[in-house]
Please model this.
Amino acid sequence: MNDTNLIDKHINFIRHQINNDLDSGLHSVIQTRFPPEPNGYLHIGHAKSICLNFNLAQDYKGKCNLRFDDTNPAKEELEFIKSIKNDIKWLGFDWDGDIQYSSNYFPKFYEYAIELINKELAYVCFLNAEETREYRGTLKQTGKDSPYRDTSITENISLLEQMRKGKFSEGECVLRAKIDMTSPFMCMRDPALYRIRFEKHHQTGNEWRIYPMYDFAHCISDAIEGVTHSLCTLEFQDNRRLYDWILEHLDDFNKLNRPHQYEFSRLNLEYTVMSKRKLQQLVEGRLVLGWNDPRLPTISGLRRRGYTPTGIRNFIECIGISKVDSMTDMKILENAVRDDLNIVAQRTMGVIDPIKVIIENYPESQVEIIKAPVHPQNEDMGKRDIFFSKELYIDRADFKEVAPNKKFKRLAIDKEVRLRNAYVINATTFDTDFDGNVVTVYATYDPDTLGKNPEDGRKVKGVIHFVEASKALKAEFRLYDRLFTLENPGKNENFEQLFNPKSLVVTYGVVEPSMQYATPEVAYQFEREGYFCRDNETNDNLVFNKTVALRDAWSS
Ligand code: ATP
Ligand code: MG
Model:
């Protein structure tokens, strides 16, 4: 048994399998891989696969490599490759050895195709798409053999060679495996292994006119790299038969310790979409600002929003690995991020919808410096300077002329409240604008209440936050809501119409001067308001993205 003595809390069916394979001596070291297709940015679903693959390798002292599954010439872009590498590193993982590209194996795939032809296990088929469908049959009806199934080996080799050189047009023929047209598994009814594509490939240019299908390329790539446990999502469950069939019929790989495929359920999150195709539609339709829009479930979007790698990893840990398909509640992700931020985020004050407060009994033109803790539960994080003077900002929601009920613990006329980190104040009167909106509140402060309660025993229950006016910095706040109005928008063909128009609301307010140097992507707790981080794309202005609320807002 492996000495890690596998941490019970993680035990899942994949770990059981690995334990068995190590115990039986089938493998002495395990290897996993993360195989993204570079046709979009990574999303939180990919994070599940990344954590699974890299954590297994780490815990079992094995290896996990990164392979770009770039067998499709049309879609891939270098921008995606760059962002994928960056996102994996940001999540806190690193791949073993060099980055692999399926396209590096194109010559190998070709050799293996020839081997299958030589074993009379593959043939070139000229049925058109419609005929192929007809011959394939249905779940209820077995298929029938293609008339090209018995072409001779030499003829097939020559035909594949011609396909490779571009002698046939796209769609004119394909190379198919010769398996079983009566199989109950559709994927075993002579599946295509190679198809003709005239598109230029970003790594191999125009060298190839044929490209391997996913099922053919994936198992061989795993085998070439020495992967032992090939983990993928449930939709490939049937295809496992083809995975095994291909490797078992190739001399190089037909060994007991060849790779095996295991499936787990995808992560689906409520009120969002996850497929790269759908995300791309949102980006191209300009419904969002780009792949890294903070509303998207992409890793780069979550990063821009202030989510932490630890929060995301804890979330993945918390949902676990199983074979049951389900929708995950966004709250679970938000809780995981909030729990992490509660520990690491520096505290600060910001006013999102400001009104002015004038402290009538405070000396004119005096500005006082107060030392406030950066984190109330962690003294080691030190103190920050905040300021106090005659003019301050508080949030509109924190003042009412008359307290609406006994529970109201904010400022009202003749009702005292403590300003966070500072003094107790009492409102006396206020001004409104033409429309009756409060513009300025006049108040008095009790100079003897800095860091202590009033000496005469007056009880002041409420605490509200504020920002001193002369040093306040103007800031933009971007407040986010669910991206879609329905729980499972992806099910709907016209999912774009379910886009939540209030998914982004912008407000303008003020923040403490210390925020001038706020690091982008690092979340701060704006006390009483929520977690926010400075936007990473708007350097000149202070723009803050709301990461997550202080408490779970959905259930209240
Ligand atoms: P999408 O449908 O979003 O385009 P994909 O499966 O086509 O996803 P790939 O780039 O092929 O994306 O995926 C790389 C790896 O990430 C695969 O092993 C895939 O199974 C895994 N993966 C993708 N989406 C999820 C998800 N929602 N949950 C768990 N794993 C996922
Ligand atoms: Mg894919």
Q: What stands out?
A: Residues 35-37, 45-46, 48-49, 232-233, 266-267, 274-276 surround adenosine-5'-triphosphate (ligand 1) (CB under 6 Å). Residues 344 and 375 are 9 Å apart (CA to CA).
